[in-house]
């Protein structure tokens, strides 16, 4: 990659990061292109040259955001931390993300997800699903997941939650309870957090 291409890509990265930070804090509706340009230290014309419209920019920001989250979870899932620590990181990372995201941006993500052909859906089908399967198998091998519960049953539970969010039945209400719902998924209603197993 030559110097010009590298600078061009870095400028695009700066715009995406600036837009993401603003969308997370204030939502997509209230943030203007001029505010993004100021934060990214570029002109508004530069943003339009790269993305053509605010709508296209939002779409690119969603892809950028989903890739960041996906890469972070891969680091956890395929890392060397003990299984309980991986679960802890996943739970509290989800909680922090839910608390920091402006509801308007969250609703935009859910609206995209509901289409069934979104980038979020693509990453889940092609990457996240494989990661979860790996995590479940690790937990089962190390005695943390009940061997009588199949991957299919766990994935069916995730699918039910996923479909509910797509239809809007729970997406408007789930944000304050993201941490509790994740705990419910991994530990059940008895909250049996088994941390006494040997790694």
UniProtKB/TrEMBL annotation:
Alphabetized SUPFAM superfamilies for the sequence: Homeodomain-like
UniProt xrefs under Pfam families: TetR_N (PF00440)
Keywords associated with the record: DNA-binding, Repressor
Segments crossing the lipid bilayer: none
HTH tetR-type domain mapped to chain residues: 9-69
Domain of life the protein comes from: Bacteria
Feature: DNA-binding region: 32-51
Xref: Gene3D superfamilies: Tetracycline Repressor, domain 2
Name recorded for this polypeptide: TetR/AcrR family transcriptional regulator
Organism listed in the record: Cytobacillus gottheilii
């Amino acid at each position: 990659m030559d110097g010009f291409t590298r600078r061009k890509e870095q400028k695009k990265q700066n715009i995406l990061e600036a837009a993401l930070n603003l969308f997370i804090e204030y939502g997509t509706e209230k943030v203007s292109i001029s505010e993004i340009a100021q934060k990214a230290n570029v002109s508004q014309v530069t943003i339009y040259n790269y993305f053509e419209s605010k709508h296209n920019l939002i779409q690119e920001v969603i892809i950028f955001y989903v890739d960041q989250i996906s890469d972070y979870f891969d680091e956890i899932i395929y890392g060397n931390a003990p299984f309980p620590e991986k679960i802890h990181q996943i739970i509290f990372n989800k909680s922090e993300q839910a608390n920091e995201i402006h509801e308007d941006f969250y609703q935009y993500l859910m609206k995209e997800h509901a289409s069934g052909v979104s980038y979020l859906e693509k990453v889940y089908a092609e990457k996240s699903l494989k990661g979860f399967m790996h995590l479940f198998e690790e937990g089962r091998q190390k005695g943390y997941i009940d061997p009588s519960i199949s991957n299919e049953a766990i994935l069916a539970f995730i699918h039910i939650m996923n479909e509910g969010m797509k239809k809007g039945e729970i997406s408007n209400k789930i944000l304050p309870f993201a941490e509790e719902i994740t705990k419910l998924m991994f530990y059940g209603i008895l909250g049996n957090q088994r941390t006494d197993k040997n790694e």
